[in-house]
Amino acid sequence: MNFPSTRLRRLRRNYNLLDLVSETRLTVSDLVYPIFVTFGAGKKVPIEPMPGIFQLSVDQLAEEANEIKSLGIPAVLLFGIPEKKDSAGSRGIDSKGVIQQAIRQIKAEVPDLIVITDVCLCDYTDHGHCGVIDGDTVDNDRTLNLLAEMSVSHVEAGADIVAPSAMMDGQVGAIRRALDSSGHSMAAIMSYSAKYASGFYGPFRIAAESAPQFGDRSSYQMDIANRREAMIEIQQDINEGADITMVKPALAFLDVLREARDRFDTPIAAYNVSGEYSMVKAASQNEWIDGQRITLEILTSIKRGGADIIITYHAKEIASLLS
User: Which of 6, 39, 113, 320 lies 20 to 30 Å from 310 when distance is taken between CA atoms?
Assistant: First the structure.
């Protein structure tokens, strides 16, 4: 295998050859599109740091769901913004809550669109933390019951997959037991297993109106420096009954994603988060980069890194290129 008998450029002569021998195939069926659902009616509110992304009221979801389906995107991930918040995040469990209404609306309009719901209290609590507060800390075990109740309410509204993101120890097991005991043994769990305490979430917290009112989330989200710990988190979630695990964020943690893929056989999702999206959009709008090309490169790197599922705000804009 020495030059000139081996010439690696032979298979780079044109795009047809490049495509023929491509090692990684990014397809529209890999993608999940996140949606922010807000209270009220007639709302399509632009999210300033995330160009092209909106807060949508429930009555706007029929059109949105049909567009997503027409693009070939198989699934959505829903985040809710209630009209009122309290210390226990009770609106997240309400059967008439914004997410429960959203699930029913989407399923009535596009029944075969996969609906995944975020299961966490941060969107619904007045303090912005992901669980019940005891003093100045989050009470892990008291939070578990609320996450389980929320998951059951989502599935009863029609959700296909619940996605616990609170990073409470034991959350997957608590949710699995609650779903099974309520007759929903076929409802799947996609756990945010390796969710890091990252600065890349800034735009999301504006979009979901979920910034913590004091402190930060480092006592329950993972230290960005740790990789071995992520493997423990993923294994624990699998042991507790997770059907799909997740690495979040994606781009800055491709090494974690790769190791997880090498070690575990369950499907793995990666979340191409808001800060990653906003950086591309800002640089593209300033004509510093080719936004479309960079987006494809980023999403391909996430797929190459080992993701079976990519949650990304770029899904709609990139879907036509992948079809």
Answer: 39
